[in-house]
Amino acid sequence: MEYIREKSNSVLIKKLVGEVADVDLSTHDCYIRDKFGVFIPIFDNSDTKSAQHKHPAYEIIINFEKDSEKPKHYWAEITSPDVEHDRNQCMHCYSIFIEKEYFESRFRLYEPDVPVFDGKAFEFCSDILKALNTFVFEYSKSMMNSDITLDAQTEIITHWLIRSIFGETLDMRAVSSDYSLARAQHYIEQHYMENITVEKLANLGYMSKTTFNRRFKNEIGITPIEYLIEVRIKMAKLMLKRKENQLTDIAMRCGFGSGAYFSSCFQKYVGLTPSEYRDKYAD
């Protein structure tokens, strides 16, 4: 049975990865389905120069440093099928391959035209890593009805990745199980452009400011105001990617009140000025 599965996997890998599969198969742990595959390096070959190559499927590379402090959001890059590239992979990465027709059918649920991606960088939340690890665990354990659950996880991960390409990087861990706090989060997401006070948010949950602040920080990990700023920064990133939006207009539309305060907050949270971010990631 193991031989049959290995032989079947080899066929599926070539369907997604192409002819380079013969060379790279021994250097990765492979978790492969008909339309979706996760490949994880098992030793460091980052010093080896990668030759020009291309794949029949969409390739998404997630690089991260294993020993560094885990950030809340990560960066990935996506390359379309048949686009030649020679990007090297580090030891600590996930290589995700999604079958062309399957990916494009899901992408068109969000936008009618699928662009050609040539290493486009995009930000995504760490929950995708958790979902990928769940996929790997389920695959490895060969649990009852795993075909059904693996297909469901493939659907979820694909949609989360596509949403991330469009700038939606919601961290599901941040959604509180306490409805009083979740209601405040929903309000912030819908009214981030307004002058929101902690007192207003506390009233939504029928509690004092002190109690609300304490419970929010304990549950979410940051203060309500920090959460509000993160939401505003997220929306500002989406607007910055369109060059026709003026910086002062973005500052006001995202609730920052002034261009100077917007620039200060953005650089503190992102590590780039708004102008630098636009130059790097504008569509």
Give a structural overview.
- This protein has 283 residues and is α+β, with helices and mostly antiparallel strands.
- The protein is built from twelve helices and six strands.
- A six-stranded antiparallel β-sheet has the order 1-2-5-3-4-6, with helices on both faces.
- The longest helix is centred in the middle third of the chain and has 20 residues, at 146-165.
- The model is unreliable at 1-7 and 66-70 (pLDDT under 50).
Kindly summarize this structure in a few lines.
The protein has 283 residues and is an alpha+beta fold. Helices cover 49% and strands 13% of the residues.
Count of DSSP-assigned helices = 12
Strand order of the largest sheet: 1-2-5-3-4-6
- DSSP summary, beta strand count: 6
Low-confidence stretches: 1-7, 66-70
Largest sheet: 6 strands, antiparallel
Q: Residue share in helices?
A: 40-55%
Q: Indicate the overall shape.
A: globular
Which strand-content bin applies to the residues?
5-15%
What separation lies between the terminal Cα atoms? 48 Å
Q: How would you classify the quaternary structure? A: single chain
Report Rg.
Answer: 21 Å
Mean pLDDT across the residues is: 82
Q: What class, by secondary structure content?
A: alpha+beta
N-to-C SSE string, H for helix and E for strand: HHEEEEEHEHHHHHHHHH
